[in-house]
Amino acid sequence: xxxxxxxxxxxxxxxxxxxxxxxxxxxxxxxxxxxxxxxxxxxxxxxxxxxxxxxxxxxxxxxxxxxxxxxxxxxxxxxxxxxxxxxxxxxxxxxxxxxxxxxxxxxxxxxxxxxxxxxxxxxxxxxxxxxxxxxxxxxxxxxxxxxxxxxxxxxxxxxxxxxxxxxxxxxxxxxxxxxxxxxxxxxxxxxxxxxxxxxxxxxxxxxxxxxxxxxxxxxxxxxxxxxxxxxxxxxxxxxxxxxxxxxxxxxxxxxxxxxxxxxxxxxxxxxxxxxxxxxxxxxxxxxxxxxxxxxxxxxxx
Length: 301
Known about the structure:
The chain folds into two domains: about 1-170, Rossmann fold (3-Layer(aba) Sandwich), CATH 3.40.50.720; about 175-295, N-(1-d-carboxylethyl)-l-norvaline Dehydrogenase, domain 2 (Orthogonal Bundle), CATH 1.10.1040.10. Helix content is about 45%, strand content about 20%. The chain has helices at about 10-20, 30-40, 80-85, 105-110, 150-160, 170-195, 205-225, 230-245, 250-255, 265-275, 280-295, and strands spanning about 1-5, 25-30, 40-45, 50, 55, 70, 95, 115-120, 120-125, 130-135, 140-145, 165-170.
């Protein structure tokens, strides 16, 4: 396939880099990252250790049109991405591999054929031209809107043959909610405590917070037609924490670099959707508020 990765940060670079070994792949990213990839290739270290040489550009290429567009920008940039990619809506299949809730809906509003996707890889952006693969995990892909099962099958096959363990799921919305709640447990705690993922379940205090986040998230998801079992969600949190114990979450990395986080699409979205349904969401709302405050605190700079 011809693949375009829009948003070649840590996750986009890993996925695009691995796909480039089997498929014609173009990464769209920041100037310094693009320049480094052009000069010396994309270096992936850690669980995966190799150098690949996908095409890298700063702006959307005019041709040829891709078969698959992987959207990997931060959640707060999804609307801008949808506008930038509007010319490809009629020809390409879109796959979101983003954090949080609402990204697929935003892409689908443009008229695109959309697949939803969640991945449990632990990735750190080291610097221009290099990402560190800190933890491995499975990827789940399924039709979201206007896309067919066969579309998802083709992408899952491409991922698997490129070394990205992937699975076809019929109800991707359940996976999206599950991943959002897992992120709501891990990301803000690691960011606020300045600790790697493994610390999340290391104390009774943080474990209690995790259980509260899960209970609130499960109740809100049910109001939107997604039935999750709290014990199953906790097991997924524990699995991700174990698999990515040494990884520093993207939210922690954003705070350390003085950048905006994706909290509005994670705990913020759960809190917002819960309030709409009259559901109490105090823990998610508190974590969202603390991260929002941390974004502007002098110590984050």
